[in-house]
User: Fold this.
Amino acid sequence: MNGICANDGIEGTERFASPGKGRGLRALKHFAVGSLVFACPAYSYVLTANERGAHCEYCFTRKDGLSKCGKCKQAYYCEVDCQKGDWPMHKLECTAMSSYGENWCPSETVRLVARILMKQKVTTERTQSERLLLLSEFEAHLDKLDNEKNEMNQTDIAALHHFYSRHIDFPDDQTLTVLFGQVNCNGFTIEDEELSHLGSAVFPDVALMNHSCSPNVIVTYKGTVAEVRAVQDIQPGDEIFNSYIDLLYPTDDRNERLRESYFFTCVCDECTTRSKDEAKMELRKLSSAPMPEEVRKMVRYARNVIEEFRRAKHYKTPSELLEICELSQEKMGSIFADTNVYMLHMMYQAMGVCLYMQDWDGAMSYGEKIIQPYSVHYPAYSLNVASMYLKLGRLYLGLEKKSQGIKALEKAIAIMEVAHGKDHHYVTEVQREVEDLK
Ligand SMILES: [Zn+2]
Ligand SMILES: [Zn+2]
Ligand SMILES: [Zn+2]
Assistant:
């Protein structure tokens, strides 16, 4: 592979022992805002079932007119080279999908782990995805799993045996338990420019970076390659931090999420100073301020309704979902301002339902309420903000609001030029959308 030895590491960076955080990644040179720190091809990846037909299973290219796998008629490819390239992985599922029919239902994690096992079988040397960290070095945190997580692991192992036994000689259950633990803590989801879920993958070198709520890099994807770009000025000696979570929420919520999924508590500047918490928890201006107990009660309600909605998404109808959003906003709105992150969370969900139902006016009016507070709550360069400008801009254009559309798309481009890089096809695509209008 282009003459680079995997053991050469990643130019301008080094793996080091980060005080209190275990291993981490440190800069050895200056990285300006918008510059590429490194790229990492996926060690293993899988396209999500919902995106079949829209993206090539092998290279993740999004285009019309992909060709179907003649055997299972479920996988789609750019052309024969992609189909050939994907076969070592696709053969794990091709026959099984046909023979199980509707009963073929392994989770995405199971599908990814099957591919990792297959890759491990044929890989003898350190890969280009593991220049600084080997997949086998991932933490599994098995000692920290609660009953629910342990049960989920066992269910996944059973599904792996059930759906993939034809092609894989499985290691013992303890080894599989460790592997599922490693993938759960170190796996990535690949998203498109509007943050729609495209698939799951492991990028060992990307997983080396520790978390901060004020990250100095952002990870984006070009096909199945992860790219890491600086979003703050990085000096030699600085630790390079990525964010593992959605940064919209107040400090306590972020840390609950980090403990739940990654088993640590964050001590970054944002978590120590809590400088954004007050704005994120903004209350409605009322003649008499609510009692602290009332506010606490409403926060508990908000967290519950967020969880309720997350579960309801799997079985309720769009109009039922919209009702949950509207009722909860009405209730929270008695105390919370419209810029409060819990209000914004429900507005964002409502916007998603409107988009799904092709209610463009509804989606636009939610987007308009969300975008300004989003720009305040999120860091300067944020994929959440960029994708909201993008969705809003495209909605405006669809509704023939040309000048507003151009303005929103230009805001998205400004962020994406830093986060994705000026030459990323997402950026050039949006630029073309704008050019075509002028
Ligand atoms: Zn392809
Ligand atoms: Zn097939
Ligand atoms: Zn933090």
